[in-house]
Design brief:
The chain has two domains: about 45 residues; about 55 residues, Alba-like domain (Translation Initiation Factor IF3). Helices cover about 40% and strands about 25% of the residues. The chain has a three-stranded antiparallel sheet, covered by helices on one side. Strand 2 and strand 3 form a beta hairpin. The longest helix is centred in the N-terminal third of the chain and has 40 residues. The protein is elongated.
């Protein structure tokens, strides 16, 4: 009699585990199916086109230049501190790479605020 009771507990435990595994498998298949549906229907992420520009303002113009470029939709991607030699005088500059979405300006236009002449 005790042997029969023990077998019914084991069968019940196996049944519960099988149901849980089937539930997890169903959810996983549902997730994979949803991702596949997005790919088939073209709802996946579309690639972004960018415009890039390289700027090199002197130290004293850095903040105002960044404000001007930022208000025109440019995003700073990379910057490094460098020096520039002009007429035997060494000045500090920041070499910067900026970008913005290609559709941020009017078609065919590459509107970039005019840089100031170095002092």
């Amino acid at each position: 009699m005790a042997d029969l009771t023990e077998h019914s507990y084991v069968d019940r435990d196996r049944s519960t585990i099988v149901k849980q595994l089937l539930g997890v498998l169903f959810l996983l298949l549902l997730l994979v199916g949803a991702q596949g549906w997005q790919i088939v229907k073209g709802l996946s992420v579309k690639s972004q086109s960018w415009q890039y520009v390289i700027e090199g303002p002197p130290d004293e113009q850095l903040q105002s230049r960044l404000q001007t470029l930022g208000s025109a939709g440019w995003e700073l991607v990379f910057a490094r501190r460098a020096t520039s030699d002009r007429d035997g005088k060494t000045t500090g500059i920041y070499e910067m790479i900026l970008r913005r979405p290609a559709d941020a300006s009017a078609p065919g236009s590459f509107a970039l605020p005019t840089p100031r002449a170095p002092r």
